[in-house]
Amino acid sequence: MIKNDPIGTAIKDYLQGKKKGSITVSCNLTEDDIIPVDYLFRQQEEMPELETIALEACHGHVLDVGAGAGCHSLLLQERGLQVTAIDISEGAVEAMRGRGIENVLLGDVKELNDQKYDTLLMLMNGIGIVGDLFGLYKFLVHAKTILNPGGQILLESSDILYMYEQEDGSVLLDLNAGYYGEVEYKMKYKTHESDTFKWLFIDAGLLEQYAEEHGFTMEVLYEGENGNFLAKLVLQW
Predict the structure, then answer these.
(1) Is 50 in contact with 156 (CB distance < 8 Å)?
(2) What CATH number does the domain containing 220 carry?
(3) pTM of the complete model
(4) How many domains does the chain have?
(5) Which pairing describes strands 216-223 and 82-87: parallel, antiparallel, or unpaired?
(6) Is 94 within a domain?
(7) How many CB atoms lie within 10 A of CB 175?
(8) What share of the chain is helix, strand, coil (3-state, %, to 5)?
(9) Which residue segment(s) compose the domain that 96 sits in?
């Protein structure tokens, strides 16, 4: 799926003993962020509270969206849940299969059409894959076709309004630039660099509006100190 695969290459390097690598994440809003590759392999005791709550809330057949190295899928599988991991990274998919995850798909969740799930798990700001608000609209329409009745989406996102705050406490937004949570990213690992891609951060209030318009009820299960939150969307119709 991805010819230039920074995430997958980093994961495979780690499994081959190259433990000190890091992934550089560039964003059009702020300075580069550095993700140590070993963070993708965190154990249960290393996971933040938000992720622990999300894993406890999973039920039925779980689709782990953007599963990466598979740390969440492995835990769910060990707990006896039926779990399928999906990622667009060929390297990540190969690594997850090698780590013993029984059901792994190479592909884009937005293109699935031949299976039903009870839980869509979207951690590490996982809803960001929709790209923008129109993408969120399309994703919620699609999600209803792959969820069983009463199925749920467990997703992490963040309200990044604070990134637009000025020194005097005011907020400066370009009202002609679209929603402030629509950003652009690029990832790099060694010589592997992704194309620029869109990523969505959405505030809980706006997310609830979109959820209700598409037949979901929404509950916030966790709120962090930096605007991040865990939401549960349950399909009603």
Answers:
(1) yes
(2) 3.40.50.150
(3) 0.93
(4) 1
(5) unpaired
(6) yes
(7) 6
(8) 35, 30, 35
(9) 46-175+201-235
